[in-house]
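Marked as duplicate of an earlier ticket. Keeping the data here for the record.
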Amino acid sequence: MKRSLLPFALATALLAAAPVIASAQTATAQAAPSSASQVVLTNSSRIIGTLEKRRAEFKANPATLRQYVSGEFNNLFDREYAARLVLGIHGRGASDADIKTFADALGDSLMTRYGSALLDFNTQLKVRVKSESALPGGRGVKVASEMLRPDGEPIPVDYLLRQAGGKWKVFDVMVEGVSFVQTFKTQFDTPLRQKSISQVAADLRAGRLQTNANASGKK
């Protein structure tokens, strides 16, 4: 697997999987207006247009980029549900406050470390949506896609979404079968065995722990 693609996919996942259907016009016809695919398509088109239009501004002012990414992330990513999945057994019985503290720390760490990768996004990349299917147990839906590159084989990228507050929100992204949730679940297992959720969150915020998208995590 091309490991460099996972950090990139994680960065785009912060913005509701921005490259999922960036150039796939056929997705509009394939997806029903209320489907997860259509919601992702609408937001992706808007976000990518903004990134392209404001690229120079964002490069010159990282704080402005961070503010933009943070706003989109909060609107489109189900950070607390994803945090519960990352915590796994360590989140059992945890308070909502602890979950939120960890979710905010994890999200901020991801944005700080990978958000700038969005400025290198290639708007000429072609992406095809293959399908939208229900997840087992009514957990939501999977939007399966492929990144089409002019100089290589297609790269499968899947996005998992669920209804939250009346909206479709992304809670996981998988590149060639590698899940961002499982990657960080594996990465934080040892720290969470040694410290409380709030202590691990504090370590994330202080930089004593850092998200590592190159860690292995098969789902």
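See parent ticket for discussion. The first strand starts at residue 126 and ends at 134.
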